[in-house]
Amino acid sequence: MKLMALDGNSIINRAFYGIRALNAPDGTPTNAVYGFLNILLKLIAEESPDALCVTFDLPGPTFRHEQYDEYKSHRKPMPEELAVQMPIIKEVLDALNIPRYEQSGWEADDILGTLAKKCTDAGCECVIVTGDKDALQLVSDFTRVKHVKSQKGQTITKDYTETAFVEEYGFTPEKMIDLKALMGDPSDNIPGVAGVGEKTAMDLVQRFGGIREIYDGLDALDIKDAVRKKLSAGRENADLSYDLAQIRCDTPVEFVVQDNLRREVDNGEAFAIFRRLGFKSLIEKFGLHPPQSGDTELYPPRVEEEGVGHNIKDIMRERLDRGEDPGEWIFDTALAAYLISPTDSSYDITPPREDLQQKLKELGLERLYYDVELPLCRVLAEMEHTGFLVDKTALTQFGEQLSHMIAATEQDIYDQAGETFNINSPKQLGVILFEKLMLPAPKKTKTGYSTNIEVLDYLSGTHPIIELIKDYRELTKLKSTYADGLLKVIAPDGRIHTKFQMTVTATGRLSSTEPNLQNIPVRKALGGELRKMFISGDGNLLVDADYSQIELRLLAHIADDSIMKQAFAQGEDIHAVTASQVFGVALGDVTPLMRSRAKAVNFGIVYGISAFSLAKDIGVQPYEAKAYIESYLEKYAGVREYMTRIVETAREQGYVETLFGRRRNLPELNAGNFNTRAFGERVALNMPIQGTAADIMKIAMINVSKRLEKTNAKLILQVHDELIAECPKSEAEEIAVILREEMENAATLSVPLVVEARSGKSWYDTK
User: What is the predicted pLDDT for the residue at 659?
Assistant: First the structure.
């Protein structure tokens, strides 16, 4: 069971300052309430929690004020425009049947800590949503913190698991208290140690641990004498600050996880409040309607009879999960807004349906919207509902194998370094690499040396420790993100039910979240092992169908390049043909190295790759890579003309589009900044190709789904250019034919679309 607990004060505060002033018909300020509810809907869509609650501070002193008179003493009072909205949000939450918790003498953070502890004791996952980083100290195996902030007028979130926290801070979450004890917190008036700022405090905690370890060994610490004196003089304040910063998990609040299971909305009460506040769009989003006798609605929103919905795919999925019919739908405001402006960061607030319909018509997007995007919603909802079966035992064993490998690699790194240190700390790693081992150092920044992957790649071959560090990072990511991460999201039916996001990418490609199954590693042997964990049910097989070089085929068609088109029409190896053209040798004389480099050029051209980037990818000098690109464009004249034409056209009309009319605006092409213009040119080259590939895949999914209705097979996953179905063994050959036929016939091009389909017990076996 998953509980999502919101820090009401911090979220409504973010909403108040992040949304322009809004007022109800009677003049009451409403922007904070409106913003809070939109954030709530977004969070529910992202997390799909089983249980939900909100915590609040109450006016008046807390035990911390009694402990320290100056605690939060300098804070300005809440603005009147926000204060009047606090009782309104509580009234709304009550109408939505969302429990709220507040306790006199305690802060909302302490209540969150108590809730997290009780969830842990009950073996439940707790997701804390807050705009305050103080709660990061609560992160644990069972508790994840979802940090909310505003960026360029949009609400964004960042998830902190234990692994994510350690990667960012270089120490474990509970040490956040020690960090605050040393550096203090001006926002809460926590004093900390005088003269010790964030940089020094971070260094101390990363290197030596908490304040207990620091003060117990103060005389022997490898620190400057000035810092030692500050720490010695500030010990009393450090202890006080630790107590003030520590979130208490023993508040007297009465809490039982099951009491917070999501419940039916009081439709009549909620409808009346929303109408009073003038929240017309939220009435629709929450599925509210004028009250009728004995009528209730489940929360989150359900569809009205005519089908006027927002993110309808998610609502259909929820209905399917409850064993209900997904319903008939005629419009999705979020999907329409996305198609009209695919680079927006959020579609929480959309224009009225009538405005969206008119805009779709003006932009020539009606056919794409009604024939592709809307029908796809049901296909995706059913795929999410079905899920992908996982071998939990094998995944657990794989995690244990990775743990042993991580421990061995860690020890090898220590042996090479000649000492133990925190490998996850960029600062400590930088000291080892560039000060102790004296490797060629990149430019030092204010926070220390960079040790990112680009730096490690640059240092490859200079010392054995470099490859070990790269291996360590790959192994820890495999374990935390996949071996451990996937285990946490296996549903009671033994399957993983990913979410397909339809409104995220600017090209129209689908993305996968919670978990992201599109990022399952495949190129390296160890990562590829994960595909063995995704299996078919008893008596079933998986059928995997994959487009062969669809983007290059689209490039040949769109650019109308005769040499490329001929190669594809004759079924030749396009990379070998390119190598033959670029290197000026007969097709039979192409070496594996030539083909490999030609392949990099082929795919690089699609993405507007520079000579410098190509040189880095294939391990040659930039002048050699430049020569390859020039030779390529000389031989493939149609591609060269396309690359010039598409950028010029995009600059003139302000956008590019796919073969099916999907648009992306490109204001970057007329920017004053060179790098911004260069980005716009790369997008202009790539979007028509990648976007058309996305359109073709969506059309194929719809057509495949229709044909599968007469079989016992179900689509279960779409990843990049491949589709996966699960079916009885006896139907595997038939399903492979269906997938291949519908995918190859999803579009008519001047070159053939080719699909390879294979079956197997596991995802790995189909490859």
Answer: 96
Helical packing angle, 674-708 and 592-606, nearest 10° = 100
Number of neighbouring beta carbons within 10 Å of residue 532: 16
Residue 392 near residue 490, CB atoms below 8 Å? yes
Please state, in angstroms and rounded to a whole number, the distance separating the CA atoms of residues 624 and 665.
Answer: 34
Within the chain, what is the greatest distance between any pair of CA atoms?
86
H or E stretch at 553: helix 550-559
580: pLDDT strictly greater than 50: yes
Q: What's the rounded Cα separation, in Å, for the pair 689 and 554?
A: 6
Question: Percentage of residues in the chain with pLDDT exceeding 70?
Answer: 96
Q: What count of other Cβ atoms lies within 10 Å of the Cβ of residue 227?
A: 17
Q: Which of 182-191, 238-247, 411-420, 573-582 has the highest mean pLDDT?
A: 411-420
Report the pLDDT value the prediction gives residue 293, as an integer from 0 to 100. 44
Nearest Cα to 497, choosing from 509, 511, 484, 513?
Answer: 513
pLDDT in tens, 561-578: 999 999 999 999 999 999
Contacts 24+ apart (CB under 8 A), 437-441: 437/463, 437/465, 439/463, 439/466
User: Of 102, 116, 110, 185, nearest to 144 (Cα)?
Assistant: 116
Note the Cα 407 to chain centre separation in Å.
29
Contact of 162 with 172, CB cutoff 8 Å: yes
H helix count then E strand count, the chain: 34, 16
Question: Quick one: pLDDT at residue 374?
Answer: 96
Segment 191-200 mean pLDDT: 92
pLDDT at 446: 57
The yes-or-no verdict on residue 22 having pLDDT over 60 is yes
Question: Cβ contacts of residue 380 below 8 Å, gap of 6+?
Answer: 313, 317, 500, 502, 510
Q: Is residue 19 within 8 Å of 35, Cβ to Cβ? A: yes
Half-sphere exposure of 443 (CA within 13 A, CB side): 2
DSSP category for residue 658:
-
Q: What does 501-528 look like in DSSP terms, one character per residue? A: ESSS-TTS--EEESS-GGG---SSHHHH
Region at 170 (left for phi over 0; alpha for psi -120 to 50; beta for the rest): left
The candidate with the shortest Cα–Cα distance to 31, out of 56, 53, 14, is 14
Rounded Cα gap, residues 418 and 160, in angstroms: 32
- Say if residues 145 and 116 touch (Cβ distance below 8 Å): no
Going by C-beta distance under 8 Å and a sequence separation of 6 or more, which residues neighbour residue 409? 468, 471, 472, 475
Handedness of CA 387, 96, 153, 364 (dihedral sign): positive
Q: What is the pLDDT of residues 119-154, one digit of tens each?
A: 988 888 999 999 989 999 999 988 999 999 876 667
Q: Is the CB of residue 500 less than 8 Å from the CB of residue 511?
A: yes
458-477: pLDDT as tens digits? 898 999 999 999 999 989 88
Q: Are 283 and 271 in contact (CB under 8 A)?
A: yes
Query: Checking phi first, is residue 738 left (phi over 0); if not, alpha (psi -120 to 50) or beta?
Result: alpha
Contact 597, 618 (CB under 8 A): yes
The encoded tokens of residue 359 equal 């805009």
Distant-in-sequence, close-in-space partners of 156: CB < 8 Å, separation ≥ 6:
148, 149, 150, 345
Give the whole-angstrom CA distance, residue 405 versus residue 408.
5
CA distance 136 to 146: 9
Residue 93: Cβ within 10 Å count: 22
7's enclosing H/E stretch is: strand 2-7
In this prediction, residues 382-404 reach a mean pLDDT of 96
Q: Distance between CA 298 and CA 263 in Å, rounded?
A: 7
* 664/479 Cα distance (integer angstroms): 37
Of how many residues is the chain composed? 767
Percentage of the chain modeled with pLDDT above 90: 58
CA distances from 445 to 120, 427, 609 (A): 40, 11, 29
Give me the phi and psi of 437, to 5 degrees please. Answer: -85, -10
